[in-house]
Amino acid sequence: MGRMIVPHTRFPPATKATPKEMLPVVDKPAIQYVVEEAAAAGLDDVLMITGRHKRAIEDHFDHAFELEQALAAKGDTVRLDAVRDPARLAGIHHIRQGEPLGLGHAVLCARRHVGAEPFGVLLGDDLIDPRETLLSRMLDVRDAHGGSVVALMEVAREQIPLHGCAAVERTGDDDVVRVTGLVEKPSPENAPRTYAVIGRHVLDPAVFAALERTPPGRGGEIQLTDALQELAVGGTVHGVVFEGLRYDTGDKADYLRTVVRPAFDRPYLGPEFLAWLKEFVAAAENGGTGHRRFAA
Predict the structure, then answer these.
(1) Is the Cβ–Cβ distance between 6 and 21 less than 8 Å?
(2) Distance separating alpha carbons of residues 156 and 235, to the nearest angstrom
(3) pLDDT score of 72
(4) Which residues constitute the domain of residue 282?
(5) Which backbone phi and psi does 28 adopt, to 5 degrees?
(6) Are 151 and 239 contacting, i.e. CB atoms less than 8 angstroms apart?
(7) How confident is the model at residue 83, as a pLDDT?
(8) How would you classify residue 78: left for phi > 0, otherwise alpha for psi between -120 and 50, otherwise beta?
């Protein structure tokens, strides 16, 4: 299996004219981290399901010949490689969803491209730390069990209404469960467990027929969770329980945390940034913002 699809999501008002996936996380747009994750797991054919204003994403993963020539002429090989890297990650394709009719509808848009092969679905507002191997583990589970595989994280019960929720049975592997049921954003008291479905899926092409039978649900959208529930009843859905580092860019406060955490991993940036942040926090705790000292 070498295919993945990346559906488009929204983050107004910053994304009025720019896709949320193009918001920068330190020195790269969020979507590049997702494609790098896919490439690292061996997926080399990427289909992006986008809405309006898709040109920025297309341009980012294309060659910028004039810029590349200018950097080459200056001998700036470091920046030249950084500019070229997105276009070299994988074969990139694009389809417009047209109307925002839900994740299930976005997956259906990929049917002709995917055909009869299993494929990955990676949501652009979920970033998995590059040091983690979640996607590779999910591909291994698919090879071992067949069917579809979802990524699960245990969350606080009050957070359950923000996620799809899975009921599970244990298997012989500590990090692998069989999914027996799925509910889209249940109330905390109605949630079967506190396992939330996060934005990584490895799907069997049987999901397409299930999606075609899935009526619109919450908000008039076709929910992927509802189609996976049908497959789970048939015993063909497994979950990988993930306990690693995940960054959620779908919320403004989480987006800020997403920018801060990877910044510390940059050797050219982390130590200086940490020293500044300590001073800033100390000034804020003493009743000031430190804006005069740190404005420069």
Answers:
(1) yes
(2) 27
(3) 79
(4) 272-296
(5) -140, 150
(6) yes
(7) 62
(8) alpha
**How many beta carbons lie within 10 A of that of residue 194, not counting itself?**
18
pLDDT band with cut points at 50, 70 and 90 for residue 68: confident
Please say whether the beta carbons of 44 and 91 come within 8 A: yes
pLDDT at residue 288 in the model: 66
Judge if 28 and 75 occupy the same domain.
yes
Of the candidates 5, 97, 91, the one whose C-alpha atom is nearest the C-alpha of residue 48 is 5
| Average pLDDT for 134-158 | 94
What does the alpha-carbon distance between residue 218 and residue 240 come to, in Å, rounded to a whole number? Answer: 26
Cβ neighbours around 286 below 10 Å, total: 8
Q: What are the Cα distances from residue 42, in Å, to 4, 92, 186, 250?
A: 10, 14, 34, 26
Pull the structure tokens for residue 261: 């955490």
How many Å from the N-terminal Cα to the C-terminal Cα in the chain? Answer: 50
Instruction: Give the β-pairing of 45-50 and 3-7.
Output: parallel
Q: Tell me how crowded residue 196 is: count the other CB atoms within 10 A of its CB.
A: 20
- HSE-up (13 A, CA, CB side) for residue 217: 19
Is 279 in the same domain as 251?
no
Give, as one character, the DSSP assignment of residue 215: P
Report pTM. 0.84
Other Cβ atoms within 10 Å of 265 Cβ, number? 12
The number of domains in the chain is 2
Alpha carbon distance 38, 91 (integer Å): 11
